[in-house]
Each structure stands twice: as structure tokens, then as C-alpha cells.
Amino acid sequence: MKKVICLALTLVMLLSAFAFTSCNGPQKHRVGVIQLVTHPALDAATEGFVQALKDVLGEENVEIDVQNAANSTDTCATIAQSFVSKNVDLIMANATPALQAAYNATTKIPILGTSVTEYGVALGIDNFSGTVGGNVSGTSDLANLDDQAQMIIDLVPGAKTVGMLYCSAEANSDYQVKKVAEYLEARGITCQNYEFSDSNDVSAVVAAAVAACDAIYVPTDNTAASCAETIYGAMGNNKKPLIAGESGICSGCGIATLSISYYDLGYATGEMAAKILKGEASISTMPIGYAAQATKKYNAAICADLGIDTAALEAAGYTALN
What we know:
alpha/beta, Rossmann fold, 7-stranded mixed beta sheet, 6-stranded parallel beta sheet, 14 helices, 48% helix, elongated, disordered N terminus
């Protein structure tokens, strides 16, 4: 008799669960997005990520909460903690400070980074193998740094001094600058660092850099990206050719860049997220993904302003920024 009662109760519970699911539909996957700041590259990565989730999972099956930290590391941490308290199913961290905040906030919720240059540097991992492990993976926006350095040599052949312009608060900017400087200095070119702590001192630092240098290099730096037009304006009448780490910065202040598609990078991150949420892959074994290709781009307006021959650039394989 007891067995019959137990079976009956089990059947009632199953039928109740089925009825609840049928009435309310399948449970949505809840995804939190931390975007460090608004600028074209990060915006495109978030857009690609969101679209991939909708394409793969179905828009009706995913709930995405996109939060912008307005370039504040403290706000990144607050947003990360909020997502942890809500127990979201996955966090996407767009840019290095966002990744660091999520990484410090949880060891349980899966975290995917994007627009992060080097995960070993970002997370303090020595001898990084390409797979973070634990609850973290993602995609990198790293384009070949030696190729970027060679662009400076090719496009500004008379340059003897190159100013490295970047935000001191961004660890991956420092990493890129060191690699590019190693390449240039091995070829007899002097490199000088010009660091700004935030957007407030960009103009003064830029003015000092253009006064002392023949060319400027800006890595994939979020603070620089958010005030690219300010950088160009701060050059005044002493404008110097600037090679940028990504197309968003280049469109505001550079002559050329080795460009990747941040939309495609974000989309690839979204596809990774969908696999994790569907239980088709384990984040602990997911290697970091990279952009499929990088292309040489030039800024026609700024090249014209500096008297640079764009026909020669196109002959060398560059194409104009859209």
C-alpha cells in the first residue's frame, strides 16, 4: 500500500511539473553582460555576442542584461557582484577590467571574456597555455604585434622616435606597448612611453608626445578608444602619424591600423556561450579564441590631412576604413 501511495505522489509531482512547464514555457537562460565603456569596438562586440545568443538559442529562450560601467573599474565590480547575487547562468565580460571584476566575483558562474588582449596578463597567469581553466574562457582581440610595429616602420620610414601613448591603468595596454617597443628598438628606433591615468589628462600627455616624437603608437586601449577624437584634437598644429591597435581608435585619430572585426569576435563569444548554456561544452576546457583574420586599414581623412599618399597605401594592401 505504501508503495502505491508513493508512486501516486510521484506521478502527481511529475504531472504538476509538466503542467507548470507547459503553462510557463521553458526556463530562459539568464546572461549578464559587463561592458567597460561605450566605444565602437566594445559596442560591436556586445552586439555580436547578443545576436549570436538570439540566433543559436532563440530570442524567446534567453534573457540578456547588458550593463555599462562607464569606464570605472569600481562599477565593473559592482555590476559583477550584482550578477552573482542574481545567480545568472553566465557572465560575459567585455574588456579586461570587466573580466578581472567578474573573475574576482565568482568561481562558479561561467565567465566568457571578449575584447581582452592577453588572458595571462589580465588574470596574472604565468606561462599561460591558451586555456584558463576553471570557470573562465573567452576570445582575444590580439592582432599580431610585430606586424603592427612593422607598419610604423613602413609608413613612417624616417621615424627615429616613437611615442607609446596609452592608459597606465590597463594592463593589456602595457603588454602591447612593451612588445611593440621590443620590435622597434631591435631595429634602432627609440621608444618613449606617454601614459595617461584617465581621460582627464589625455590632452596634456598627447601634446607632450607629439612635441617629442616622429610617430605615435596607440594599442587596443579602452580609454584611448573612448576619446580618440580628443587625441587627434590635442595634436593641434603639430599632428604626427599615429598607428592604432584597432579600427575604432584609428577612425578618430590614426592613419592606419591592423584591424579585426569586433562584431565577429563578439559573435564567436556568443556561440561559445550558447554551447556552455546548452551543456554541449565545458568552459574549463575551452581554449581562448582569436579573430579569424586581421586586415590593414587606413583613415582616408586623416591621411589627407597629413599629406599621406593613400594610393601608395592601397598598392601596399591597405583598404580604407568604412
